[in-house]
Amino acid sequence: MKPKERVERQLLSSCSEIYACLKKASVLGMVMKKNSCQVIFLVDDEPSIRRVVTRTLKELDVRVESFDSGMECLKFISKRQCHLLITDIKMPEMDGMELLIQAKAVAPWLPVLMVTGFGDVPLAVKALKMGASDFVEKPLERNSFLISVRRLLEKSRHLDELLGHTLTHAERRIIPFIVTGQSSKEIANQLFRSVRTVELHRQHIMQKIGVKNVVELVQRVNAMGIDVENVASDNKVDSSF
Residue 157 has what pLDDT? Predict the structure, then answer.
């Protein structure tokens, strides 16, 4: 092979490798962009409202997953990524207030935007005290609604690395022990686990819920409506811990 042909072949080979790398990087970039898209869970029992609100929310370049009931939504809160929960307050079977309580028990960090009907403001205020982030009234005014959604999504974007991950079964089990003032050693003895394991769970709970100490944890748990007065006897031995 002549030197000139050899150089040309090497150049073609190099160009092909560069093109392949660029193509791979481009595809990876698109995947990362897709995965970084924020996710909103929308809950309303009326199909027409779900369609309209979903169409409005997609103007924000987010992915919307809609549910016709609180029960259906709860099945996915602990399994899928969610940056904001928007729910109607008045729904059959499980209403928005009950969904708020149960969603916060599973994902305490999750911002919740309550949608109320005319005259339901007192109920919305109660929801705020129980951990909701904000509320909007029906009929939804497009601009103010999107402003509220943007603000809550922006807060979600700056969360701690662990904040936003759902609590594991083991972490939920030890919250009542922590908020009643028991030390890691006392909890470990009751649950037959090592102190180190309990310390790790305690640390993850603080990070996921977004609090810095036990006092803040107690306040957050109370706002979430979690009952810690009675720790069931079978809570002390759990093989899945």
Answer: 73
